[in-house]
């Protein structure tokens, strides 16, 4: 392919993860950042230098898995992000039991499309986050070996056997994703249409509602 | 949240990564599988047991980074997947230079929205795939430390300094994403509307074209 075909048509897409032309500042995702699935991200605890990156993800929700008060409350309020806090002790010594009911409640939030785009994080994005993502994979019937392969990738040398045992024992048979595809498309449009003025977004909103009125019923029935 | 609110409304979404109700077979992604970005996946070389999982991703393209003939050619043909092969030697001893021109050509394919959903893979999803994903992150202006953090997560103990040096030296200043948001939405609709009959898909196609006719021009201008 000749280099002349490098076009700028995709700038609305590129904006999502930080394209900004020459000379724009470096993008700094939180350590252990990754995409779990459509609309679901995971990471360690974001610090001030990560917030410009998170802003570009246009998050609708954060699932925070530590008991301590949240440090990024200003960022969350400014960006109208719903904060779901599930306080789970992270200490390994002495070992604290992973509270199954709390993980189950957090998983229900993660399975709800209307909370997307959503970021899951604890302190280091290894253990509590790894357990929740592992349970999410169980809902989607991943083989245990595949789930633990992913857990290990993020936990590295700090992998904990009790986390893996918890995921193995977790019964995901009554959990499933909920929400409507058109709601997801609505945030998807917003995520990719970065740099909109408020007025333009309002106009986009009304176009989305038109689309939903015209096509939502049929699509939901046929999918 | 009471458990009764666990609904089945989201089955079209859940289908993407393998929800299939009770008793459905285990889902087995390839080792080192991960989501790079919207519509971009990475993994090791998929084997026969991984193909049912890949089918659910409704891939439009595969970027294959080894010089050897492709083993999954039947799967690719059956599912009308475009195969982009970029033959890069993977051996470390004796060290083979990473061909910058080839990486650049592969990156152009990865940056083209019309190829999504797309899977990048080599043999183990560590080195050649890690280099290409690293260059992709450079296009999006990730800090080098963040890029190498991600490279290490997938390469583990097999991380190679020369791969990291290549990514550091790679000049991504003239590369950017290309394609149109409505094309991406079109495949996104398909990906989530799993289990359609051909007739239903045709009807969906025409609805998409209606949406594009009605709204595409305005959105492309305002995004």
TrEMBL record, chains A, B:
PANTHER family: INOSITOL PHOSPHATASE SIW14, TYROSINE-PROTEIN PHOSPHATASE. It comes from Selaginella moellendorffii. InterPro entries: PFA-DSPs, Prot-tyrosine_phosphatase-like, Siw14-like, Tyr_Pase_AS, TYR_PHOSPHATASE_DUAL_dom. One of its GO terms (cellular component) is cytoplasm. Its EC number is 3.6.1.52. Belongs to the protein-tyrosine phosphatase family. Atypical dual-specificity phosphatase Siw14-like subfamily. It is an enzyme of class 3 (hydrolase). PROSITE patterns: TYR_PHOSPHATASE_1, TYR_PHOSPHATASE_DUAL. This is diphosphoinositol-polyphosphate diphosphatase.
